[in-house]
Amino acid sequence: MHSADVTVHSRYLPGRERALLGGDFLDVVQTPDGAVHAVIGDVSGHGPDEAALGVSLRITWRALILAGHDGAELLDLLEQVFVAERPRAEMFATCTTVTIAADLRSATLLLAGHHEPLLCADGVAGEVTAAFGPALGMAPGRSRWRPTTLTLPAAGALLLYTDGLIEGHSGPGSERLGADGLIGLICAVPDSSVSGLLDHLVATARTLNAGRHSDDLAVLHLSWGGG
User: Fold this and answer.
1) Could you tell me if residue 157 is inside a domain?
2) CATH number of the domain that 187 lies in?
3) Which of 77, 67, 49 is closest to 136 using CA atoms?
4) What is the pLDDT of residue 35?
5) pLDDT score for 72
6) pLDDT for 171
7) What is the pLDDT, as a whole number, of residue 109?
8) Is residue 165 included in any domain, yes or no?
């Protein structure tokens, strides 16, 4: 999706060999008020059930956004659908939702057991500090999610991602890449284009991991003001 003010790039790689979809999901939609809404998430486990749930959550999220739901109420409804559809009670799903205001001055985040996004501006990347809530399905009907509102720079980008990008090994030892390692890769990117950046992050993370940790991988890059 490309709005007049926000540009979206993404990458998606299922962890299962020869699979077209995994349990990770992402989506972006713009509402008539000009706000841009995004979600990225990860259903626990690997297999066709998880892939089907990921698709269900993406479609449900989009329908709820277009119906005018937002905030913690939206996550509550999304959790209700997830609990009704999951084949096993121990399954859960993490997600991060972002709403970028039409004036591009602020963004509202909700974290349900998922990573904080990275905010990239002026050549610097860092983790956003946001209120953390439980994953969907962990405590059905009792979960409480609190929104975090960020003041956005005039030009910048938010990078959202799933476990598959950072939980792999960072070299021949046992250390994992993690968010700090991801920030280091961003700083060392040899290509200034967004497509080049995302390709570099995915390829380098997979090379460092050398096939030792297999997981679905999704990345979502939202930029504005030339960021």
Assistant:
1) yes
2) 3.60.40.10
3) 77
4) 96
5) 94
6) 57
7) 97
8) yes
The 8-class DSSP code of residue 88 comes to S
**Rounded to an integer, what distance in angstroms lies between the CA atom of residue 200 and that of residue 158?**
17
* Low-confidence residues in the chain, pLDDT < 50: 1-2, 18-19, 212-213
Position 202 scores a pLDDT of 87
CA distances to 27, 64, 86 from 61, in Å: 8, 5, 16
Alpha helices in 128-177 (DSSP H): 163-166
Residue 214 CA, distance from chain mean position: 18
Q: How far apart are CA 183 and CA 180, in angstroms?
A: 5
Copy the structure tokens of residue 133.
């809530």
Q: Is residue 179 part of a domain?
A: yes
> What's the per-residue H, E or C state across 104-133?
CCEEEEEEECCCCCEEEECCEEEECCCCEE
Count of all residues that appear for the chain in the document:
227
Give the model's pLDDT for residue 78.
97
> Residue 217: what are its φ and ψ, rounded to 5°?
-140, 130
What spatial distance separates the first Cα and last Cα of the chain, rounded to whole Å? 16
Q: Domain range holding 39?
A: 6-224
Whether the CB-CB separation of 189 and 148 falls below 8 Å is answered with no
Can you state the angle between helices 178-187 and 194-209, rounded to 10 degrees? 130
pLDDT at 13: 85
CA distance 14 to 115: 19
Q: What is the pLDDT of residue 200?
A: 87
Domain count of the chain?
1
For position 203, what pLDDT does the model report?
86
Structural domain includes residue 1: no
